[in-house]
Hints:
This protein is of the alpha/beta class. It has helices at 13-21, 65-68, 76-92, 101-109, 146-151, 215-227, and strands spanning 3-8, 26-31, 46-49, 96-99, 114-115, 135-141, 154-159, 164-165, 172-177, 183-188, 197-200. The protein has a single domain (3-227), classed as Class I glutamine amidotransferase (GATase) domain (Rossmann fold), CATH 3.40.50.880.
Amino acid sequence: MTQVIGIASARKHETYAKYILGEDDLEIVRLSYELNNLQDLHRCDAVVLAGGEDVHPRFYGKPGFVEEFGLDDIDEQRDAFEWEILKLSQQKRIPVYGICRGLQIANAFFGGTLVPDVVRSGKPDHTRISKTEDRFHTVQVVAGTDLFAVTGPEGQINSAHHQAADVVAPGFRVCAVSPDGTIEAIERIHPEKYPFIQLVQWHPERMDINSKFSGKLRERFLQSISRH
């Protein structure tokens, strides 16, 4: 039976779809407030929360950040829609794969907060070098975490974000950091008690599929569906 993967609407939907599809027999469903199709999540076996706009700070209790940090790349309708996706995915115990913004909105949903601007927080630039070129840096994976079991201790990832997780949501832990200490991945402390969720700050859909920080994560996500 063909597995159905929902991908929350993204600016580069086809890139995410190609990454998730690979050579497997899967069906991709685009989920978007513009399509008003939250009900399609009921036929999905798993969901991907993709990259994109900043999460509005009101979703993590800091509405004043909009003016303070001049945040203008925001789509509150998308935030609200993906909030409902997360709520329903937890109720239905549907596996979730959050990428970049996907990590950020999930962290906010579960009770964490975000760094509104990485550079203004005193860290090096983590945004893209240009519209067509990602930045790259190493990442250290925390020993003893589930992510460590998949990727090993370190590797190189791409980077294209100006926000990041700050206070990690209750029940979650940091499982990867950049050399400057920016949080690059978080995971459940007790994953066996909850639906599968995989949250990374980098963009595996734009990396070499042979990288353990791309293909291995895709494989782990798809394997979680059969366990679900």
